[in-house]
Amino acid sequence: MIKLYHYPLSTNSRKVRIALIEKGLEFERINIDLSKKEQKNPDYLKIHPFGQVPALDDEGFIVYDSTIINEYLEDEYPYPPLLPGDSEGRARARLMEDFRDNHFNPHFIEIIHETRYKPENQRDQKVIDQAVAQIVKCFDRIEKELEGREYLAGAFSLADIAFMANFELMERFNIPVDSKYKNARAWIERLKARPSYAASAT
Ligand SMILES: N[C@@H](CCC(=O)N[C@@H](CS)C(=O)NCC(=O)O)C(=O)O
Hints:
Structural class: alpha+beta
Largest sheet: 4 strands, mixed
Bound molecules: glutathione
CATH topology of the largest domain: Glutathione S-transferase Yfyf (Class Pi), Chain A, domain 2
Radius of gyration: 17 Å
CATH class of the largest domain: Mainly Alpha
Order of helices and strands: EHEHEEHHHHHHH
Number of domains: 2
Distance between the termini: 19 Å
CATH architecture of the largest domain: Up-down Bundle
Helix content: 40-55%
């Protein structure tokens, strides 16, 4: 059976949990407790050389990095597809996933570093406020990309999954999505209604 090395609260772990569930694949969850720095244990470094989650073991084949894992799952288990069939659609999905990975998610990590790992009196509110502002700004682009589309690449894809992994933290950190972002707000509700959203929470 597929083994997923993950941490329930990690957004990148959730990206892979959602993809596995959407593909109907059974998997065993192996908890790597980031709060105890278990990701840096020598045994785990044999699985993930950079000491991060997630990592996946498919019958002895080990792959790490959420984006690469999800691409592997798409190649190895193509049905149901989580990327469009045409090159343009696939490139579009990958561009949007890249936008989430490199311009959206890093600001969540900044907030997590301030709030989860520091005592309250050492938190830098300015860092948190700037990160929230950057996240809010990403919705300008998301709104435009969703013009005339239900999902970022047309049909539901790995691009939507990447963003879905952050929705719970948006609620937890009280990050607003302005009512002017009509497409984005409808998209968020559409994605949260998918069974994989609730099933991937931990
Ligand atoms: N590009 C990697 C990033 C993985 C990553 O940043 N994982 C975080 C949790 S979401 C982690 O393991 N942090 C602990 C650490 O870096 O020591 C991916 O997409 O999997």
